[in-house]
Here is the input.
Amino acid sequence: MHDFWLHAIQFFEYAIFFYCMMILSSYLIMGFVSIFEVLKYRRERDLTDYEEILASPEAPTLTIVAPAYNEEVPIIDNIRSLLSLRYGKLTVIIVNDGSKDQTLQRAIDNYDLEVDLDCVYPETIPTKPVRGIYRSKNPAFRHLIVVDKVNGGKADAINVGVNLATTDYFACIDVDCIIESDAFLKMVKPIMQAKNERIVAVGGIVWLNNDSVIENGRLIKLKTPDTFIARIQVIEYFRAFLLGRTAWAKINGLLLISGAFGIFERKLIVEIGGYNHNTVGEDMELVMRAHKVMRLRKEKYRVAYIPEPLCWTEGPSDFAVLGRQRHRWTRGTLECLSFYKCMFFNPQYGVLGMLSYPYWFFAEWMAPFIEAGGLLFFFILCVVGLVNWHFFWAMLALVYAFAVMISFFAIFVQELSYSSYQRRSDVASLLWTAMAEPFRYHPKTVYWSLKGNYDWFTGKNVGWGTMTRAGFQKK
Amino acid sequence: MIFLFQQMLRLTAKDIPLDQTHNLTRHGDEETLIWIVWCVVATMLLSALLMALVIFIRRTWWAMTIKKEAYLRSRYENLLTEFICGDHENEMIRSLSSEKEALLSLSQKELRKSMNRRIFKECLLELHKHLSGQETNKLRDLYLILGFKHTAMQALKKSRSWEKLVESIAELSQLGIRDAKALIFPLVNHPNDMVSVAALRARVSLDLDPLLLLDDRKKDLSPWQKTQLRVVISRLPIEEMPDFRRWFHHPNATVVDFAKDMSDQFADSLLEDLTYEFGLINDP
Here is the structure.
């Protein structure tokens, strides 16, 4: 018994210590890679005239697919906002996913829609039945298509849009997101620059606009959110989109393009069967599947990323909704990791198998277990009176200092690159929030992740849950 | 249950000698290790503080710079407008050349400051872009006299920064400085796409035969490069437009596609121009 405890303590201390060092080092490496990438992109952007893409016959054709479910209030403004995006060869497909409210009727009334009897729905990817395809009588809205279908979830709704699209690429967006007017001009540039490789997908930064000023579907003034919970998500998004994804994209190891905003090569997505209905992490699953297929085909390809905030969305503003969202993200991650476990340290998948997948496994999935295990271990040591308090305080300070430094670094990179927040008080409040995060917020994320894991392992299907938003109309 | 668990742990723990429980620290001097950890903590917190300070100082500095830039920009725009429209230009150039206080209160001393120089050059290039005829020659002369050409050529020779290369290529080609051809043309094969595209555009502008570069093009043209070429070609006068049929049998398929697209586009627009010219259709 004596030896068992001794070895257990030793093993746990060493394992946790090296695990922490590995995670901290990976964050630092990603941070440094990102800062160079973001600043390089910024300089390139300043020297590029994106208007030249607008009139270029070489620019790829693009369809925006926006699923809508019970969106009767914002649907009119959202469609208008999508139609006013600056891109020469753009089609907008709104998929009404069996809404129970007046979403479809309001769209019909406001955009002079009528059923297109000539259009045959090509069900290349199997979907729930389509009830009708509508086009506008008004030539001003000739690029708008509204599809009414039986409810089947977000993945199914996007698949309907993909089936109907005839363009080179399609963009998948959340209908309530605000897209920068030149977003797609910037997103297609890597596609046009590619010479001997296929650009199968392009992602971009999605940031939060809670409590900002929005008029006519356009972001007028960005402000930091009033609530702590929303502010903390702003910092999380800085860390994830600006530091993490930028670095992964540099080595073509990006596993996730946000479901709220991304461009995909239509031909490939149709070939691989579209979005998967059987996961709540359909956005990550699609990117992983595209990677897998391209790696197995041994074709030269890239999943590109634009490190610029081009899409704005509203984050949950209370802990209950945020908890549901994080719970869902955890289950999505787990599902994707389990679907593609063949990639784990498999050199056949290159960077993906040797770096991206293991990173997601160890740093994203395992982290809450390690944290919770560490806490439990600490309490046991407290109970038996074996805590080395000097060492404990030093390590606690180390973890806290590192968490604060990484958050400050993300805010710093944001400042150097985009300075999105005009007021000093906005930045000050973000810095203050970053200091409080490790104590006020982080334990909750660990709890949500553990709960997500528990539900997944016990087969409890919670579905998407309800996502309530204050909405742009109120601002 | 909890009480029993605690008792069990206590009983088990009693057997473990304290000096063996220091695991990670037992290999060396514990105090040294803790001291190192605290040093790392202090470094991290100081870095965080430093980043916060830089954020706020940078904001202040940035606000001041923007103000100064706006002032200089408006001053130089006025100066250049007066230079073009007025009849003092020769005096101004002479004064600048002889380092005396110039007419219109612009001196070489002022233009030695890098920020002033940069803004003056930007204003000059911006104005040059929107003008044609004699006025552009005046601006070109001013550009040469103020040594901007020399700086740009030096950057092309020595600079490793792709931004400086792109800027230099763009300004030299905009002002039609053909001496730079020898330095710019090899950059068409530069590994940085921004530089190679800038060189490609410059080559079309500076070469006597605008699309000569296509003749020996071995690498594929990307859609982005085609777009850039199209933009520059469409700005050429119609009489300088090359005959695209020349590349219809080029060994590089991307060049052939590009030539065919261009041929179609310009044949259409030429036909349209001629139609309007001969009054067959009323020009809307």
Residues 471-475 of chain A have pLDDT under 50 and may be disordered. The radius of gyration of chain A is 23 Å.
